Amino acid sequence: MSLNPEVLAADREVAAWFGSFRISFEPDEELWFRIDGIDDPQQIGGDGSGGTFVLLPAQTILYVSSGGRAGVIADSFEAFIQLVIACPYWLDILEFSVGGDLAEMRRAAAALEATLDNEDEINEAREEIRLALELSEPDDPVGALYDAVATSATIVRATDGSPFTTLFNRFSIDKNPTLRHAAA
User: How far is the C-alpha of 181 from the C-alpha of 177, rounded, in Å?
Assistant: First the structure.
């Protein structure tokens, strides 16, 4: 059986482990955005910062942030789960991407991994979820995230019609003392 939101939601124990990653598979009651060309998007959950995950008709995963940024982050639900497990700080990787520079994203990922506050809890959750879902570690989760965001053509709009911007942000870990030190 292929991994999909329904399979994951049916396994409450595994779904609960995603709390370690600040991911919930409980959709909000009402969407606060529109997606061009999609009348009834399938919201599959959200994160601790108010963002929303949507399964698009092409089976890709769209992330819509509460701060007006949006983009496809994975080419399938399984790839999304693998990304969250491998890089629970995936949104921070995009924050420190210097406008979508893959080398900078890799630097950010290494620095963020080195500074995990709850490393034991995260590693336990990684192991439990991979075992329960029979998932392998992805070969290059940062590269896959870059590819998904860079090729995302989905247009998300606020309720007033203004378009959301890309998930790539212009910050660098070099401007953050903690991350700069961890990357050294």
Answer: 6
